[in-house]
Amino acid sequence: MYVIYHLNILCFFIRSDQDKDVGIRYSITGAGADQPPSGIYNIDPISGNMFVTQPLDREERASFHLRAHAVDMNGNQVENPIDLYIYVIDMNDNRPEFQKQVYNGSVAEGSKPGSSVMQVTATDSDDSTTANGMVRYRILSQTPHSPIPNMFTINSETGDIVTVAAGLDREKVSQYTIIVQATDMEGNLNFGLSNTATALISITDINDNPPELTARTFSGEVPENKVNVVVTNLTVVDRDQPHSPNWNAVYRIVSGDDSGHFTIRTNPITNEGMLTVVKPVDFEMNNAFMLTVVVSNQAHLASGIPSSLQSTAGVTISVQDVNEPPVFPGNPKMIRFEEGVPAGTTLTVFAARDPDHFIHQIV
Predict the structure, then answer these.
(1) How far apart are CA 357 and CA 326, in angstroms?
(2) Which of 18, 125, 269, 301 is the most exposed place for a label (fewest CB within 10 A)?
(3) Distance in angstroms (rounded) separating the CA atoms of residues 266 and 278
(4) For residue 325, is the peptide bond before it cis, meaning its omega torsion is within 30 degrees of 0?
């Protein structure tokens, strides 16, 4: 029969009650003794004192299963081997480690409080069933502080970051830098070990800024009978994300061009509206046009955002008179006359007409 005494955390005392009658020799076998990792445990063959020979690391091996043997001086077994189960008690010797040092997340501007942004995750190699491995999160700082220093909050247990206040505006702040801390011991700052990571939160654009024409009236001029000529450029400002559907301008002529002489094409680089002649204009028929144009975006405005009064403008177009060649009213002209007409008889008159009514010229 064995008796096992725990002398201290590094020592066991194994004793057989047979040692009163015969000399006993003790030994141990198993992983950690005579099997890899060998030499961690040792036993005094005479006294039965069992020792730990080196520091143990629970994160490398959390338990050991050994067998203790007792034999007489001739090597005969005097006791049945007994099982020794040794469990390494965890100590808080590992800091939480974030999976990344920099996390990237995003949230739309104008998002309501409670909107999900991103999640950060830290793991602790210590025993997760004890406080040593229980990680809690908190936000240390936010940059910039606009509009308030605490625009975000973090779930202390899951690491989920959400908005806590309204007022996100990409046109004012396009990115926030958040420093997040993970602490074990259930977040106890006095006893727990900590680590930090950075969360970069990009504020994504919504169409909350309608395009605004830079003037209420524009003007230009075009020669008559010309096509594919840019009459004037309409300029616009839009504070949304450049070269996105929220920024790209779409121009329309809503009045003043019933015959379809003009169109407006958008310059993809500058966002200007290029008012262009696509059907020839006639100075003698109409020497001026007064157009009304409106501008909007490719994307619809966000809910609750009213259209700007500056999205409408008037465009005055003057038509330039040019010297046009005379024209014959009928060309070709059919002439009929009877045979035998005397020489010198007038058959018809070719009278050309000058289309330039406002320029007196001799044909």
Answers:
(1) 11
(2) 269
(3) 15
(4) no
pLDDT one-digit tens code per residue, 123-133: 999 888 889 99
Of residues 257, 313, 264, the one with CA closest to residue 289: 257
d(CA 139, CA 118): 13
Determine the Cα–Cα distance for residues 17 and 230; give it in Å rounded to an integer: 112
| Residue among 74, 91, 92, 78 nearest 48 (CA) | 78
pLDDT digits (tens, 9 = 90+) for 217-241: 999 999 888 899 999 999 999 999 9
Tokens representing 44 are 């005094």
Q: Please enumerate in sequence order all residues whose Cβ is within 8 A of that of 195, keeping only pairs 6 or more positions apart, or say none.
A: 95, 96, 97, 98, 122, 181, 182
Pairing of strands 194-204, 102-108: parallel
- Which residue is it, tokens 């990344």? 100
What does the alpha-carbon distance between residue 176 and residue 76 come to, in Å, rounded to a whole number? Answer: 76
* DSSP symbol at 45: T
- The residue written with tokens 């396009």 in the block is 174
d(CA 323, CA 45): 125
Q: Which two tokens stand for residue 127?
A: 């025993």
CA–CA distance, 187 with 137 (Å, rounded to integer): 7
Task: Give me the phi and psi of 293, to 5 degrees please.
Answer: -120, 150
Nearest CA among 71, 85, 105 for reference residue 180: 105
**For the whole model, what pTM was predicted?**
0.74
Radius of gyration of the chain (CA): 46
What SS3 class is residue 186? helix
